[in-house]
Specification:
Layout lengths: L1 E4 L4 E4 L15 E6 L4 E5 L7 E5 L12
Antiparallel strand pairs: 1-2, 3-4, 3-5
């Protein structure tokens, strides 16, 4: 369920959560949540303690893919 949070200016999926860093794949592009609460795209090398969580990138649905 996606809920708009007008206070934060964001649409938040209530059923989708950050994953623990222990499960983050290494050497591939993922979304990372930093210690200050800011998300960034990047690769986790397993050596940095700055990242607090990760999320996989979304996949494009068929209607969005080029034909």
């Amino acid at each position: 369920m996606i809920k708009e949070n007008h206070t934060l200016g964001a649409a938040v999926d209530q059923g989708y959560h950050w994953q623990p860093m222990a499960t983050c794949p290494r050497g591939v592009k993922v979304q990372l949540l930093g210690a200050g609460g800011v998300a960034a795209y990047g690769q986790h090398d397993g050596k940095q303690n700055f990242w607090r969580g990760w999320a996989p990138l979304p996949n494009k649905p068929e209607w969005m893919k080029a034909k």
